[in-house]
Design a protein that fits this description.
The chain contains 24 helices and 14 strands. It is of the alpha/beta class. The strands form 3 sheets. It has an 8-stranded parallel beta barrel with strand order 7-8-9-10-11-12-13-14, surrounded by 4 helices. The chain has a 3-stranded parallel beta sheet with strand order 1-2-3. A two-stranded antiparallel sheet has the order 4-5. The chain is globular, with a radius of gyration of 25 Å.
């Protein structure tokens, strides 16, 4: 596991070991033994108590750690009962069906043969789901009633795109999916041929194609799909899997791995974006009425300065002379950037006094993901070397729509005229000030929006590596002048419906609609 997910693998097994060594855990077991319970029954009881405690936590991430506790319990029980836990040999083209899947389960099977994974429990942020995703295995989680309705040898179709699972499907369904699968693979191969070609329009305008990563395991995909660099490294992801704050040295090792792997390609490291929905287990989540409007992201970094400085030093000292960029998340004011820069300058002199010569070419940038930063974009540009638009947050803050609330999901509209106008304002401000402007929110990797983003003038698009080929194909299939015409026109529509109608008509006219529909 260390090979696959270096930062998570070790931490998970370490977490299991800690549960086993926890005195209150063994004391509870001893208490039950003293009452006359068998060892097996005592372990089962105490593990279930721990599981319940985790499951009642309000934080998604911590709740899903119940799986790890249960995993530890099951391992002890297997030893006590002398049961061999042989996972049946995985046949070619197998689908793994489980009530819950732990990282150690996934480590025990030959995942190169896995065509799909389906679980009844677990969430999308479970480590196994994240790992399966980074290995490119279609995975559907949270399928209720799964275990009772299928068994060994059943045929199963796993549609990771729509999140649908067919158990013992009819011949028609199988036939249809065989055809879809063939088409998709042929299409993927065709797209992969684009790997080393630039994202250049038919009239010679180029856009840099970068990848977003959270875990080191994703670096193999970055290479596979030919990213020109990393546009967003979400450094809080590895923090979420550590049991304690990673030390400066531990962080340095992580950043070094990414930088070395990317060679002379640029790497954008985003400083910690903790808080709101992202709390590591070693931090206590604050009770806040509106966590997304609360103590999160750069606000945490500027308040807990020593942690921020530690991270900045770890980044700078791992840079060597690589083309590195540091990006500050959730900037709402010029003051925040100035304060971040001051702390950064202190870190540089600190390192210099230790004989570490900082890489003077490191660029500093801001994420634009709050409406205040859009309105003040011209002023913000003067303080930074580059900006990158985080549409996931920008859309939720501009439209006042929680990005994770199903009830208002239909109002979360990337094509809302207010969002498009914001994007136009940001690009204009950046280019007026001679700054490069990128986008690293999910919008950048959705082919529906590619022509618009191209036409608006984004210099860089950063996305999940899997989407690079299709977005590149669209860019290579259109002229910059057509894209500009579409972008100029689209901002004139008053309604989302109007915008969408216009965009889809244009995509049809430009011969791009089929490509867009296959991938969105
Ligand atoms: C964003 O908000 O668009 C973004 C890229 O950051 P995150 O999704 O990590 O909040
Ligand atoms: Mg964000």
């Amino acid at each position: 596991m260390r090979e696959l997910v270096p930062e998570v693998g070790g931490a998970i097994f370490e977490a299991l070991r800690m549960i086993l060594e926890d005195v209150s855990f063994s004391d509870r077991v001893a208490e039950e033994l003293a009452k006359g319970m068998t060892a097996e029954a005592a372990i089962k009881l105490v593990v279930e108590e721990y599981v319940l405690r985790f499951e009642s936590m309000s934080d998604d991430y911590l709740r899903e750690r119940a799986v790890d506790v249960r995993d530890a319990g099951q391992r002890i029980l297997r030893h006590l009962l002398g049961v061999d836990h042989e996972i049946a040999e995985v046949r070619d083209q197998a689908v793994l069906v489980a009530s819950e899947l732990t990282l150690s389960d996934l480590a025990a099977v030959d995942h190169s043969k896995l065509e799909g994974i389906v679980t009844s429990g677990g969430g999308v942020t479970s480590h196994a789901a994240i790992l399966a995703k980074s290995m490119g295995i279609p995975t559907v989680v949270g399928v209720e009633g799964l275990i009772d309705s299928c068994g060994e040898g059943d045929e199963v179709v796993v549609d990771g795109n729509s999140g649908t699972v067919y158990i013992r499907p009819s011949e028609e369904v199988i036939g249809e999916y065989r055809r879809l699968d063939l088409d998709f693979r042929a299409f993927q191969r065709e797209l992969e041929d684009l790997r080393d070609l630039p994202a250049e329009t038919t009239d010679g305008h180029r856009v840099a194609m970068l990848a977003n990563i959270g875990f080191l395991g994703e670096l193999s995909l970055v290479d596979h799909y030919g990213a020109e660099g990393i546009g967003l490294y979400r450094t809080e992801f590895p923090f979420l899997s550590y049991r304690d704050f990673p030390s400066e040295e531990e962080q340095q090792k992580l950043y070094r791995r990414v930088i070395e792997e990317m060679g002379d390609r640029p790497v954008t490291i985003r400083t910690l974006d903790l808080g709101a929905d992202k709390y590591p287990s070693f931090m206590t989540a604050l009770e806040e009425n509106n966590p997304f409007l609360g103590w999160r992201s750069i606000r945490v970094s500027l308040e807990v300065e020593n942690i921020f400085a530690e991270q900045l030093r770890a980044i700078v000292s791992s840079a060597g002379d690589a083309p590195l960029r540091i990006m500050f998340p959730m900037i709402t004011s010029v003051e925040e950037i100035r304060r971040a820069r001051e702390i950064y300058a202190d870190c540089l002199s600190d390192l210099a006094s230790r004989g570490i010569v900082p890489n003077s070419a490191i660029e500093l940038g801001a994420m634009i993901e709050v409406p205040a930063a859009v309105l003040r974009a011209p002023q913000i540009m003067r303080e930074v070397d580059f900006v990158s638009v985080g549409t996931n947050d920008l859309i939720q803050y501009t439209l006042c729509v929680d990005r994770d609330n199903g009830k208002v999901a239909s109002m979360y509209q990337p094509l809302h005229p207010a969002v498009l106008q914001s994007l136009e304002m940001i690009v204009t401000a950046a280019h007026d000030a001679g700054r490069r402007v990128g986008m690293c929110g999910e919008m950048a990797g959705n082919p529906v929006y590619t022509v618009v983003l191209l036409g608006l003038g984004f210099d860089e698009l950063s996305m999940g590596a899997l989407y690079l080929p299709v977005v590149k194909k669209i860019i290579r299939g259109v002229s910059f002048s057509d894209a500009r015409r579409v972008a100029d026109e689209i901002v004139r529509y008053d309604t989302v419906e109007g915008v969408k109608g216009y965009l889809y008509a244009q995509l049809r006219e430009l011969g791009l609609i089929e490509l867009v529909e296959t991938f969105s």
